[in-house]
Amino acid sequence: MSYFTKTIRGVAVAALTLVASTTFAQEELKIIAPAGPGGGWDSAARSIQQVLTQNGLAKSVQVVNVPGAGGTIGLAQFVNTAKGDPSQLLVNGITMVGAILSNKAPVNLDQVTPIARLTGDPLVIVVPANSPIKAIEELAAAVKADPAKVTWAGGSAGGADHILAALFTKAAGSDPAKVNYVAFSGGGEALAAMLGGKVTAGVSGYGEFESQIKAGKLRALALSAGKRLAGVDVPTLKEQGMNVEVVNWRAIMGAPDITDEERKALTDKIEKVVQSKEWAEILKQKGWDDYYLAGEPFQAFLKEEQERVGEVLRSVGLVKS
Questions:
Q1: Which residues constitute the signal peptide according to the record (predicted)?
Q2: pTM (2 decimals)?
């Protein structure tokens, strides 16, 4: 066999391998939700699964829950087992950024392949309906007077809820290192603590507290987003004179060491998901903002967000300088 023939055959085999790999990514996908069933990452993963299959963008999509440590257990499993596999994806978000730092995780987001930011979940600050605090200015005044006496309920330490409590404390004119934050493993536990009068205020995605707000059991003081939610009569922090904005964004990542072609195929697939009418309906149902960002702009955002979150967590003592 001549050198020329060997070369042509090698090129053909490489091309067939790439096609097979890309085709497999299009046919069968696995999405890791690095949290338990029912939470935001699980909901995002299953929403993606639903739209991919409904629109024929994948033959089958499996969602696997790997909970623990703010998503870093799922991240570690993904980094260690999915290398070079274009059929595997990982849902993550701002909470994982914080957990990597606060837990001193042995893995980080530089080890995976960014695909796209998908949704933004505006956070809401609430107090129990029977609280003497009626407005955000009163909560800010209490925090400024003595932050230790204001107890916050929210999700995992270092997550979006904790970040908002710290930034609010700083904006109120107090030391964020003194924020009195109680981390709960689930929204239900945080809600029970608020309704039971065990904490001063709570933070979560608006969707998680919406039914209790509408039922009159919780009083919504402010949203952390840059603009109001459509159909929701709750002002933003910025409207009320506090220059604080935190969005609980969620994103999807590809496996380590996939090729540029595989990355493009996955990015194109996710773009079709977010452009679909089914996805638009999901955003409406769940109260999520369309926060889509892909390619180099998403990579730049991810870098900036890691720096911002690190700065906040250092200010509250969760991360040492």
A1: 1-25
A2: 0.83
